[in-house]
Write a structure and sequence with these properties.
Blueprint lengths: L3 H18 L4 H8 L3 H9 L6 H10 L5 H13 L15 H12 L2 E6 L10 H7 L5 H19 L6 E7 L12 H15 L4 E6 L13 E7 L2 E6 L2 E3 L2 H17 L3 H17 L1
Parallel strand pairs: 1-2, 2-3
Antiparallel strand pairs: 1-4, 4-5, 5-6
Length: 278
């Protein structure tokens, strides 16, 4: 069974499918259920959750006789109401960020390309503090704690998500704080340790890699299972299958252009040693 965020996504997709298979318009369904049209639209768009009682009535109206599917959909509706750890941050952090992290938390695979900084899921406290320094004081502290919480929730559970990080070589040379190499050295050394974890694949994309999909900026591909994924790019969650497939393939091609895993670790060690020597 899916978790609450991915489950809610599956539920709304199933409700749209059931209505369309029966060749019913939203206006007709809303009228028959004695709902406002906006209520049905918001349910099908995932803007609001549907109650279990409303869902029972809707499935009865659709004459859905598959008892296993009915039970599955009702469980998805119940799960969508569960409070999750990121809900603690709703008063202080942006909704789109929390929505993304909800999907991230349920992904079985997280693959990311970063051209400017180490991925947030790999950052040390000092590096995260430096890279959120432009935020307001309260937001700054919350974002740092939130990044660290994301890491522990994703990687310290019984079955950690598989994580692939493709990092532009320039990141190894970019100081997060002016004239302070210690923060960067600490981060690189942490990345070396992180790269040895069995669920990770960390690779450096060298300067001579040529043009690739990452020239358009950072992006992350989330996979939830067979043929089920999502793209996060430019601060937006993208569900279009073609865009997801394009970037998933782009990630695979970029991984082939990147230094192999062990060579990437060697390069990170080399750069850290050079920075220490000054």
């Amino acid at each position: 069974m899916s978790g609450p965020i991915v489950g809610k996504r599956r539920l709304r997709a199933e409700l749209r499918r059931l209505r369309r298979e029966r060749e019913l318009t939203q206006d007709l369904v809303a009228a028959e259920m004695e709902w406002s049209l906006s209520k049905l639209i918001r349910i099908e768009n995932g803007t609001v959750a549907i109650s279990v009682s409303d869902l029972r009535s809707l499935l009865a109206y659709y004459r859905l006789h598959d008892t296993q599917l009915v039970d599955d959909l009702l469980e998805l509706a119940r799960a969508a109401k569960r409070r999750m750890w990121w809900d603690e941050y709703r008063a202080t952090l942006p909704g789109p960020l929390l929505t993304y992290v909800g999907f991230e938390a349920e992904a079985v695979f997280v693959g990311t390309f970063e051209p400017m900084q180490f991925p947030e899921l790999m950052q040390t406290r000092r590096y995260a503090t430096a890279t959120t320094a432009e935020q307001r004081a309260g937001d700054h502290e919350q974002r740092v704690e939130f990044r660290l919480r994301r890491q522990s929730e994703l990687f310290e559970r019984d079955q950690p998500s598989k994580f692939q990080a493709l990092i532009d070589e320039s990141v190894l040379r970019r100081l997060p704080l002016h004239d302070d190499e210690a923060v960067l050295v600490d981060q690189i050394e942490h990345a070396v340790e992180f790269a040895h974890r069995e669920y990770t694949d960390v690779r450096i994309v060298p300067f001579n890699a040529g043009y690739h999909v990452g020239w358009d900026g950072a992006f992350t591909v989330l996979e939830f299972g067979a043929d089920d994924g999502m793209l996060h790019k430019g601060g937006q969650l993208i569900e279009e299958p073609e865009m997801i497939a394009q970037h998933a393939e782009g990630l695979r091609r970029l991984a082939a252009k990147a230094l192999p895993h062990e060579a990437s670790i060697d390069l990170m060690r080399q750069v850290a040693a050079e920075l220490k020597r000054g």
